[in-house]
Amino acid sequence: MSLKGKTALVTGSTSGIGLAYARALAAVGVNVVINGFGKPEDIEKERSSIEADFGVTAGYDGADMTKHEQIAAMVEAAAPDILICNAGIQHVSPIEEFPPEKWEAVIAINLSSAFYAMRAAIPIMKARKWGRIVCTASAHSKTASPFKSAYVSAKHGLAGLVKTAALETATDGITVNAISPGYVWTPLVEHQIPDTMKARNMTREQVLHDVLLAGQPTKEFVTSEQVAALAVYLCGDDAKAITGANLSIDGGWTA
Ligand code: NAD
């Protein structure tokens, strides 16, 4: 079945993996609504280039993923057939020094926002007897890492939420899955390097090679486009029997 003419809402899609999801879905004819923060001129440039490159409509909603009322209003306005829960942030710090406001923000954006988006989207999808929900989890939904307590907890929680939502919607034509990438070179990874250097007493080179790439047996970063291609597959009809899964795309990390 073609995805042409469906509508996707991609949270956290003004950069990195989210933007790749939006472009990959647009490339198969899906109208997209992007979301996230950034300079208005940069966001407009990305939005209009999706429309120009793929001949679909691309909207933008700046809902803050820490605010459940804004998330619900965004989902209701977009009325998506496809919901990609992707917004995420990272904070690196030992537990005893972890600022409470950072813990709250990481849990809110990486975990609670997906719950609130699903809560609003599932009734819309149930009424249509069709829906696809894909959440960007992480290799950290299956493994831990020192100094990333909030992120590891949020992503493990997200994996549980995906399984629960899949069971609740299994007879409604809706699938709910997680994708768990290894390291993808995006602003999120770049921004964690200084705190990782401090927490592990390492140089930038050591963090790159001994922390980021060392965990991936392929010794290569995963690309945003590879992750996005997996999401497009999960949205297609060939994947309709896949629900409640948490698919690794991590260069062998979790093996
Ligand atoms: P990124 O920093 O490029 O993108 C994050 C997006 O989330 C941006 O669009 C940003 O504006 C948005 N965002 C952040 N806070 C927000 C808020 N309060 N409200 C709305 N939007 C907000 O990072 P990325 O690496 O592309 O991350 C995307 C997802 O992929 C995240 O969930 C992340 O945990 C996950 N992930 C990333 C990697 C990696 O190595 N980059 C690996 C595994 C999982």
TrEMBL record:
Coiled coil: none annotated. Belongs to the short-chain dehydrogenases/reductases (SDR) family. This is Cytochrome C biogenesis protein CcmE. One of its GO terms (molecular function) is 3-hydroxybutyrate dehydrogenase activity. SUPFAM superfamilies: NAD(P)-binding Rossmann-fold domains. InterPro entries: 3-OHbutyrate_DH, NAD(P)-bd_dom_sf, Sc_DH/Rdtase_CS, SDR, SDR_fam. One of its GO terms (biological process) is monocarboxylic acid metabolic process. It holds the Pfam family adh_short_C2.
